[in-house]
Predict the 3D structure of the following.
Amino acid sequence: MFGEARRACIIGRPLRTGTLMLQNQDEAHRSRAISIYQQWLDEVGELVLAGASDKLIDRHVALPYLHRSLDTEMVVETAEEMTTGWSGFGEFMKTNGATHYIRSCKSASFLSDDYIEGTHNVYIMRDSQTVVDPYHARMVLRNNDGHWRMCETSSAFWHSRWPISTIRTPSIPVDAFTDTPHDARRLGKDPREILQGYLDTLTRRFRQQDFTPLFDQIDFPFSCFTIADSMEISSRAFAVTILAGAIQRYQVIFNETFALQATHAELIGPTTLFGYYTSALPDCVLEEEYLRGSILLSLKNGAWYLKSLSLLTEDQEQQTKRLTRYDIARRARLGSGTELPR
């Protein structure tokens, strides 16, 4: 499913100090949020109907992007993958003779100066007839250099493939995704600083080979990917066994010069941070100069936990798009965690 996409789980993101606080926003702020949100919906709707997925990616999407439906959860990292996804959805519209793609904002508010969270109803029409039953969606927009871009969506339909070639909606419309009151994007923190803080802790543990506290910062089940293999580590005991073998094999790496550096990070969900890291490798270990990879952190009770990690060396970087895509297939759920009837 999803080609070479891998399984994983998902989490969240904060903001700069001095930004707007969500509570007690005045009517002017709410009206502005609704206006921005509806304008984005209208502009993108026209581009989707016109099949202009390239223009959509250029101005309206922030990467990495978190996509959720009633049975799927995945991170899209590249413009190519996003273009493929939107092209597939556009082909679905064309095949079904859609003439109107109407999305009406129900609510919108600022999470901060640079984030807007909103909800909307979706109507895909062929003249006066519906192509599928109307459905509900939630979206988060991020302000990038003056352009509002989609960085997270949750849509109340089922689909089993990426790109989306067909969708199935509940016979009775539902609000499938509720607001998250403790969205990390309200905290006023730089996501790269958050990731670097976590990596600094990992660096210190590996240098000292003091791993007992490390296991307390992992959200099990934890997924790990390499260019050759992938695994899901389901428990602390299994993690201890795996890590012991890795330490014995690569002990020369974990010296006083070993350090993990965050290169990029974004809060892609209420409690999910997705980012990239790098680390220099000693010449005696591998021919490659750098270790690189992606990392997924989840926020629980105010602390960040490791949820998924990919490991690759510099010359493998072009081969690893399959390692840094994540999906949780067939997870039909409401915000409350209950499943919808099929």
User: Anything to note?
Assistant: The chain is about 25% helix and 35% strand. The first helix runs from residue 27 to 50. The chain has two domains: 17-183, 191-327.
